[in-house]
Structure of Shikimate O-hydroxycinnamoyltransferase-like:
Amino acid sequence: MVKVTLKSTYTVKPIESTPIHRLDLSEIDQAKAWTHSPTVYFYRPNGQPNFFSAETVKTALSQALVQFYPLAGRIEKDKEGRLELNCNEKGALFVEAKSDSDIDDLGDFAPTSELRGLVPYVDYNETHISEWPLVLVQITSFRCGGICLGLGISHIVADGAAAMLFVTSWAQIARTGSNVIGPKLMPFIDRTVLRARVRKDAAEKTTKFDHIEYKRPPVLVSQVDETEELKKETTVAVLKLSQYQVESLKRRANEGTMDEREYTRYETLAGHMWKCASEARGLVDEQETKVHVSVDCRRRLRPALPANYFGNATFPTTPVAKAGDLISKPLSYAASKIREGVRRMTDEYVRSAVDFLGSQRDWSQFRTSFHSIDDKAKLGAYYGCPNLAITSWIGLPLYTADFGWGQPFHMGPTSLGADGKAYVISTEDDGIIVYLRLQTEHMEKFKELFYEDL
């Protein structure tokens, strides 16, 4: 068991004065889980003096918060209960800690409570949302000389691409000693570009599609709701695929397909996981199952959002299929259903989704993927058995967090909130790592099917 001892706690504020105002949050911001997305970056000692100086990292954070000043604010609610961002310079939480263990004692970095202890804790049950810092940082020094940078960023404020924009900018400032960042790293903060065209009931007139992604996921045919499934024990697994295994799986998915474009790594992996989960769970043929897929829509909108748009621009799409078809048909079928869902996310569809959200009075029903396994994980849509929620970090610049002492040798999530939650991450050698939480009774069968013939 890795034990962590806290040494000191600081509040880091922008090093210069920043705009004080209230920032309107978009409809898709409103529908995100209001927990922090917890991640960890691990670094091995490189022999340099003053290796991974916490003071250097902390100073760079205060400089980065000048350009990324919304992250120094707090989330509040207006009179109608709508979330808004109060840019008030209250700052980020910065913690220094130490451990008498070695980094290698953490094994394969499975997202468990042990790993979660490397990111500052927030009591979401006993404190008000307006009290939560939007950025949580913890620097933990290990006996072996290695370092873990634990980071939590409020999902209300930033999606994965926006979070990586901030981390890359912050690391560059620490590495170069200059607070000047180029235009590509300068955050685009205006959220009005993703606002509903009209509000509340009137928005229904501009909602052109049946937005299945915001409807409740299927439950087991033998049950009336997910109450019994929520009671069941779950476990996590770290599943690794080499580049050769990924390519082998892609060849399998593309055998006999009539599509003019090959299935991508993500379409293949997500389809494979969906197929394996349906069989491992023993779902009956007629059981409907839904998979929650997040699609970055920055480049799908017309006009496209800037690549440096700082906010949430990932929208859900939720392919649905019958378990019998997923299990009996080739992998190409499951991959095609994933592609079908992603292709649906056109400018017209996304704008309609924004208008649909704008017509709602209660966004809590749409929030899912809370980053904890406490009671908050039971809020919103449940994507456990018979469903899945597969988040892709493929293509994100996960290893650009060089603060001056080299790139991290590992970056990954620390938490998988509930049954059915998964992250798919690419490695530097073009392999894939899958982090997955399933009910304990289903995990071994899933792993057997996942690696079959690979």
About this structure: The first strand starts at residue 4 and ends at 12. The CA atoms of residues 45 and 146 lie 5 Å apart. The two ends are 33 Å apart (CA to CA). The mean pLDDT is 93.
